[in-house]
Specification:
Blueprint (H helix, E strand, L loop, with lengths): L3 E5 L4 E4 L2 E7 L6 H14 L5 E7 L6 H8 L4 E5 L5 H11 L4 E6 L2 E3 L1 H7 E2 L3 E2 L3 E11 L6 E5 L9 E3 L6 E4 H6 L11 H11 L4 E14 L4 H9 L5 H9 L3 H10 L1 H15 L7 H11 L6 H21 L12 E3 L1
Parallel strand pairs: 3-4, 3-6, 4-5, 10-14
Antiparallel strand pairs: 1-2, 5-15, 6-13, 7-14, 8-9, 10-11, 10-13, 12-14
Helix pairs in contact: 7-12, 8-12, 10-11, 11-12
Length: 336
Amino acid sequence: MDKKIIFESTKNNFIEEKISFIVIGRNQKNTIYNCLNSIFRTCKFNLITNYEIIYVDSNSSDSTIQIIKENFPSVKIAKLTGKFNAAIGRNTGAKISTGNTLFFIDGDMEINRHFLKKVYSKSIGLKKNVISGKVQDYFYDNSWNGVIRISNDRFGIKKNSYQSFLGGIFIIKREVFFKFRGFTNYLKENEDKDFALKLSSNGEFIYYLNLHIAKHHTIDYNDFSRVINRFINGNMFFPSIIFRKYFTNINYLKSFFKLYKSFIILILSIVLGIKISFILFFIYPIFIIIKAFTKPNTSILEELLGTFLLNISFVIGLFFFYPKKIDDTNITYELL
């Protein structure tokens, strides 16, 4: 592994690691400035000078790239010109990068400058092989008019621990990332879950620090227009692929029962409704309505329809969805 020697003295040899911040995005005009600014602020706060920032764009049609060029000229920009998705974006950024440590960030996130100080040293690099932390989600309406609700801890991290899941933000040693060949490039969604399970299946668990790693600004996942778009473009079927690949994996099953409660309730209500009484069919909608009441500024009707569509898509994908693999020759980019 190449390392950049900053200086040598008669007392010791000081070797500084290089960190590559890899940001991916598509049409991130509302968030990209704060995202990149948070990286520069983090490096300044932690006195990190040996770093690079790479932004990989998935064919944006808005002003994202223009905002970067005008405000952050030192950022390397790679625009995907062939197939694109989050997995391809991260893999491309990793191949372009030159750092010993890879910090993956989605373009709608702002990193916490205090987090890096806990897990990264200029002299030895990343202190664990793969590291992430708590994520604070800021959910907006589909017009980005304002925050409609906040979730302070997406993953429920209560203490420092090793886990087998990932979100869109994590830090990893370069050799570990390439040892496991990065992300599965045909997964348009859940590529992060797949990568984490691939790691943990081989004994490489993710170290989660009980500290916020980032703020995440996004449209509410259950916003009906977003749900419809995911259904139309087929993204909603990809969780089924993860189930088919890992349904015998105990680490996956733990997260499945936590994240797919509504699907489990749907199956349960159908079985009980058929076996015992049709009244028990109503367990499912009642569960969704109760869930909607716990989320401020949430339409009960949209929550019902969106959740039902999500659950039905999982069933359809489980039996009928088999996406084509993507050949590496179809993955191209240009440096801007």
